[in-house]
Amino acid sequence: MKKIIGILMCMLMCVTAGIATTIKTTDTNPTSFIHTHKSMVNFQPWTLLGVFDIGATGQTGANGNAGAEFDGTYLYSTRYASNLIHRYDKNGTLVEEFSIPGVSGLRDLAFDGTYMYGSAANNTIYKMDFTTKTLIGTIIGSFQCRAIAYDSNLDVFYCKNWGDPCWIVDRLGNIVGQFNLGTTLETYGLAYDAYTPGGPYLWVFDQGDGTDSIIYQWDLTAGTYTGFSYDVNQDVGSGVGIAGGLWMSPDYESGIPLIGGCVQDSSASGTDWLFVYGMYHTNLPPNIPSAPTGPDEGVIVTDYTFSAVTTDPEGQPVYYMFDWGDGTTSDWIGPVDSGKPANAIHQWVTAGIYTIKVKAKDIFFDESDWSPAHPITIVGPSLEISNITGGLFEIQAVIKNTGSGNAEQVIWSIRLIGGVFIGKNTSGTLTSIQSGKQSTVSSKLILGFGKTMISVSASCRDASAIKDLNGMILLFLIIIK
Fold first, then answer.
1. Per-residue pLDDT tens for 202-230?
2. Cα–Cα distance between 108 and 145 in angstroms, integer?
3. Are 453 and 416 in contact (CB under 8 A)?
4. In CATH terms, are 297-379 and 383-480 the same topology?
């Protein structure tokens, strides 16, 4: 069944706080020149979800903020002409202002899930812990880094400074590749996008001729612009803001990927802004998977592998969840590419017939219905008591496992029912009796005189056995009838 939901893919733009009236409060390139840009093609208009005044008239009381990032809990802005960093909650409320010893002049920021990275528009990337407010290390190379994004799939950074090439930099500072963003002139912010269908993409925030706040979408696989761009100035501030930092995260709002950043307002009475965009699109859940494939029978406490596959109508990556039929399910497994199988391993602890089914969800959390079931018959051990024998002072018995599964922790006993004897009850535990194997158990020392009932029993998970025979005790001689 079609399931259409509005998915927000939005842009949050950031913090700009000025310094003194005699100091430039926006970071622009003095050599930039006029250019034109493509209009938005085949995209629905973006919806402005939120905007926060964090500049001269807002919470920080000053312009000059440029960099921006989100760490899953807090928003951040950096003051490009100082060492100041601002932390905000997701409502755009200032939480604190701080600095990190050894770091100043930060522009755009990037986050790898643990640490923040940024540069002062030079050849050094600072690796920082914003929780402890410490500099962890530096990455130095032959690049110039103003705009930065972290690629979580390749574990590399994209670095760019104004109209320079976009460098691909590894964690050692080596340039492992580069490409030119020909349409842009003065790039200030970059954001890596692993979430939008058809990606991965690189979002590029460009100042253009020094008066622009234009966002471009770059296809990292094709190495070209997608034809999509959006002018933030038509929605925010005085309309003459310039691009700052940029970020993208799936952790801002219920797992929905949002994109955000910072706009520096260049008007005489302007301020800086954090803002959020949402872009609505139609999403369909994955198709119902076929029945899982795997074995039809097995034994208890043994791992078995099952596989599932389906496709997503939009070609999005897919997660799978298996229902094992015993009251448990797997975690969500994935993501895997649409049309590619996923495997899961399970074992059953109790014999029986179980039905296994699976469902799928896409990266926007739309779920399919459950698949048809795959049955599996799980068998366990089967215990048998045989060869109960007497003799001098003791009784012996053989416990056999005639089933398909190993018998673990077998509790056994030999009891004399009736009469007065020494050594009437003996019990113990066998660690394991493998399938098709047997073990012999013996009673304690038995003494007495008279008739009795000899009862031998054994039990474990999923199996038990008992056997009774008549016997006669003649002092220390045990006779089995």
1. 999 999 888 899 999 999 999 999 888 88
2. 9
3. yes
4. yes
Q: Are 285 and 365 in contact (CB under 8 A)?
A: no
Give me the CATH topology for the region 47-278.
Answer: Neuraminidase (2.120.10)
User: Above 90 in pLDDT, residue 201?
Assistant: yes
Q: Label residue 96 by pLDDT band (50, 70, 90).
A: very high
Cis peptide before 289 (omega within 30 of 0): no
Strand ranges, E, within 254-351: 256-265, 273-278, 297-299, 304-308, 318-323, 333-336, 342-346
Among 135-149, 233-247, 295-309, 383-397, name the most confident range: 135-149
Name the one residue in this structure whose structure tokens are 């008066």: 211
- DSSP annotation string for 158-210: EEE-BTS-EEEE-TTS-EEEEE--TT-SSEEEEEEESSSTT--EEEEEE-TTT
Lateral strand order in the sheet of 214-219 = 187-193, 201-206, 214-219, 224-231
Q: Which CATH number fits domain 383-480: 2.60.40.10, 3.40.630.30, 2.40.50.100, 3.40.50.620?
A: 2.60.40.10
The CATH class of 297-379 is mainly beta
> What is the pTM assigned to this prediction?
0.55
* 13-30 confidence digits (pLDDT tens): 333 333 222 345 677 665
Give the chain's count of helices (H) and strands (E).
0, 37
Specify the 3-state DSSP secondary structure of 232: helix
What is the C-alpha separation between 273 and 77, in angstroms, rounded? Answer: 10
DSSP 8-class letter at 234? G
Q: What is the pLDDT of residues 242-253, one digit of tens each?
A: 999 999 987 776
- pLDDT above 60: residue 2: no
Q: Where are the domains of the chain?
A: 47-278, 297-379, 383-480
